Amino acid sequence: MTPSAYLARMLAVAVLASVGLVACEGHDTCGPSRGVVAKVIDGDTVELDSGERVRYLMIDTPETTSEIECWGPEAKQYNIDRVLGKTIELRYDQQCTDRYGRLLAFVEVDGENLNRTMIAEGYACVLHISPNGDDVVSDYNAVENSARAVSAGLWGACDENPC
Questions:
Q1: What is the C-alpha R_g of the chain?
Q2: Please, is 141 exposed, middle or buried when counting C-beta atoms within 10 Å of its C-beta (0-12, 13-18, 19+)?
Q3: pLDDT of 92-125, one tens digit each?
Q4: Do 121 and 153 meet the contact criterion of CB atoms below 8 Å apart?
Q5: Is the pLDDT of residue 15 over 70?
């Protein structure tokens, strides 16, 4: 490659990176592709050791931060047990952040989709905010219906709709 062709290529990569079309190693255009969980905020939000907060896509867990809702402490503890101090993989969808500046992601730990698992085990309800999750909403709703049918977790513990 000629020096001028090399410079032109590097300039093109720099321009694309500046507008968010090229991902850096270990990052995609939204944020890091993995990180170590330094703190669990609640059942559906964590803070990485880099300081970024991640809100799990497609799920909602009962509250423990502003008030204590039925099954909220259990959902938070489940999240602590699964991710605290561990490296998690992050997969983003259409919208990268929410109005609070948190990254929005599907979270994998040890190769398992934690968002889906929390619904299946009754620690979370489906929360679909389009366009994120449009490709998995049918599956997630079916998983929630199965959890409801067997009164898993919050579905057996809470008298009213927990989410």
A1: 19
A2: middle
A3: 999 999 999 999 999 999 999 999 999 999 999 9
A4: yes
A5: no
